[in-house]
Amino acid sequence: MKLRSALRRGVAFSLAATMVLGTAGCGASDNTKTGADSSKAADTTQKADSDKPYDGVTVKWALTDNAATGAETKEMVDLIKEKTGINVEFFITPTSKAGEMDKVLVSLMAGEEMDIVNRTPLQLEEFYKAAVLEPMDEFAKADNYDMETVYGGQTVKFEDQTYVIPAEKDIWLTYYNKKIFDEANVPYPTADGWTWEKYVETAEKLNNPENNVWGSFMSDDVACNYLQANQKGVSPYKADGTANFDDPAYADAMKWFYSLGNELKIQPNCLDLASGTYPYNSFMVNGNIGMYVYGGWVASALSDKEKYPRDWELGILPMPYPEGSEPSSLTITNCYAIPKTSKNKEAAFEAIKTICENKYTLGYGRVPAKILTEDEAKSYIESSLLPKFKDDNLTVEDFMAGWFDNSRLYLNEKIMGTADTTIGQIYTEEGQLYGQGQKSLEDTMKSIQERANEAIKEAE
């Protein structure tokens, strides 16, 4: 199987691409129609209005109850109805527990009827492997809809067929606490030439163990273990499809990341991160961290001062990149797909188009994966993003540099390809052993390479 998730140069992003993870059980929420009503609605004769060919048709969208009852979802449902005439009801699933199989996927494999699912590309790859997704190319062709142009080549293809359309992107940024910079008498950094070398140099200037101030914070997300190899353009797979983790770039990336805490001591070490002493939201909560590199959802969290009250101003920069490489940022995308069990696939495609093209207009700080012109991006920043950070003195240029830079490369956050989920687990396990000093770098990389090849062989 060949996966292509085309993340090319383009203007796109999401401040909070919160994925909806499903578990066992289903049912209609209180404000939706019953299953019987749904069947009746699905069979409703379509009206003659050529602008709304699916007027009156009902589609089922698989969501958790929390997501289904959220204000943003309710407004999106109303907008779908307004633009297309399509009714939306929900296939409700509880939030899945760690280690559980996605129960929406389980339900689809059991033949449950659904019309819309949304996940990350990596999660939807599992749906594809289970043969529960419907390709969209024929629907787009019938609708004369150029998906590749609208989304700048960011649709996800399996075996050269399009199965997934992106709605919003969660692009990594550098967040910094201006108060800590001021107290350390360190100038605020600029986006131009913001490399990892400059990041480390700046973090060392901010670091103040006596005052319990960390210059840097990066969580133990598995992507951090290989992010420098990723940004240097080194593929995780060789040309013959086998693992490429014996490339020196992967060992260098592993060594570099764990050196930040274990050797340079500019951030909590591997043991502190693994123990939960410094949880993922430490930057937002503690106020003692100079810089934090992570996904765009952090910005959305920081805009909520009721949940994360703070007495300091936020600064943002693009994600750092390795010196000598092209500027790049990691990203994860919230995408939509149509299950094979859908009884209204054409209507589902219409509803998905509406979501992906219009969700950002609802005013919840999301930026579309679809391509915006520079003027459109600036207008959106001024009207929807800056007001959320009115006390931080952020500028249009700050957001443009972080999320709307046409010249920047946007790379998949996670490894994607054959046995990618298993490889991610292998990398997590082996990386922890190395970071905690239980295994040498050489043995760690050898083990990752061998285990990854075994996983690839089993998956073929």
What's the count of strands?
A: 13
Q: State the helix count.
A: 19
Mean pLDDT: 88
Estimate what percentage of residues fall within beta strands.
Answer: 15-25%
From the N-terminal CA to the C-terminal CA, the straight-line distance is: 8 Å
Radius of gyration: 23 Å
**Oligomer kind:** single chain
Helix content: 25-40%
Shape: globular
Query: Regions with pLDDT < 50 over 5+ consecutive residues?
Result: 1-48
- What structural class is derived from the secondary structure elements? alpha+beta
Largest sheet: 7 strands, mixed
Fold and architecture overview:
The protein is of the alpha+beta class. The protein contains 19 helices and 13 strands. The relative contact order is 0.18. Mean pLDDT is 88; it is low at 1-48.
Outline the fold blueprint.
Elements: E1 3-5, H1 35-42, E2 58-63, H2 65-68, H3 71-84, E3 87-92, H4 103-109, E4 117-119, H5 121-129, E5 133-134, H6 137-142, H7 147-150, E6 156-158, E7 161-171, E8 173-177, H8 178-183, H9 196-206, E9 214-217, H10 223-231, H11 248-262, H12 270-275, H13 282-286, E10 289-294, H14 297-302, E11 314-318, E12 328-339, H15 345-358, H16 374-385, H17 396-403, E13 409-412, H18 420-435, H19 441-459
Parallel strand pairs: 2-3, 9-10, 12-13
Antiparallel strand pairs: 1-6, 4-12, 5-12, 6-7, 7-12, 8-10, 8-11
Helix pairs in contact: 3-15, 10-11, 18-19
Keywords:
460 residues; alpha+beta; 7-stranded mixed beta sheet; 4-stranded mixed beta sheet; 19 helices; 13 strands; disordered N terminus
